[in-house]
Amino acid sequence: MVFKVLPILGQGSKVFTSRAAGVISRKAFRPIESSIGASSFSPFLPSSCISVREFSGRVNSDGSDSDFAPESKVDKTTEDQDGMQEFLKNAVANHDVLLFMKGSPEAPQCGFSSKVSQILKAEQIDFSSADVLSSIEVREGVKKFSDWPTIPQLYVQGEFVGGCDIVTDMYESGELTELLQPIKEKQKAERETE
Fold first, then answer.
1. What CA–CA distances, in Å, run from 45 to 17, 21, 31, 42, 54?
2. Less crowded by CB within 10 Å, the N or C end of the chain?
3. 91 touches 130 (CB < 8 A)
4. 3-state class of 85 per DSSP?
């Protein structure tokens, strides 16, 4: 929606029009003090937005509304969790370089996944990837498996390396090249024997 401010109708009130709805409404606005100074800048906020706690009865101990608390949509039975953890353990152990990402290396679904995938391609290393968007159980399971809250996640020779920021820093410093060197040599030897 695009809003346009019209001239002030009364002190503390402004009229907003919505081009999308074609509606004009008059709402009471309360001026807010500015660090620039009231004479040069005087923003207004709706009175209803001044204090969120006035209309929210479900405030958590951290001061946020319980509607915004993280929720998992995964069935949390112990048997399912143990099965997923075993699956992830085997997947990580059976691949020298494994990237859990959103999408695929050919069609990444987020910028962070794309960046890590591009870094691995720049390192000229063969790697496996798993699309966490295809299974909510894998997406939530890998976060628990690594004790790392975000995707992408890179594993090299069964060890968790990190997410996008860590992989990017390691690439820029040359640490990633050193870490991947034994795998590159192994992959090169395998290609020569084929």
1. 15, 21, 7, 10, 15
2. C
3. yes
4. helix
Percentage of residues of the chain with pLDDT beyond 70: 58
- CA dist., res. 69 & res. 60, Å (int): 9
SS3 82: helix
Kindly give, in sequence order, each residue whose CB lies less than 8 Å from that of residue 153, ignoring residues fewer than 6 positions away. 99, 100, 142, 146, 160, 162, 163
Beta carbons within 10 angstroms of residue 111's beta carbon = 10
pLDDT tens-digit map of 141-177: 999 999 999 999 999 999 999 999 999 999 999 999 9
| CB-based contacts of 29, cutoff 8 Å, min separation 6 | 12, 13, 14, 44, 45, 46, 47
Residue that is written with structure tokens 């009865």 in the block: 57
**Count of CA atoms in the C-beta half-sphere (13 A) of 63:** 2
Q: How far apart are CA 8 and CA 21, in angstroms?
A: 21
101 and 151 Cβ atoms separated by less than 8 Å: yes
The answer to whether the pTM exceeds 0.85 is no
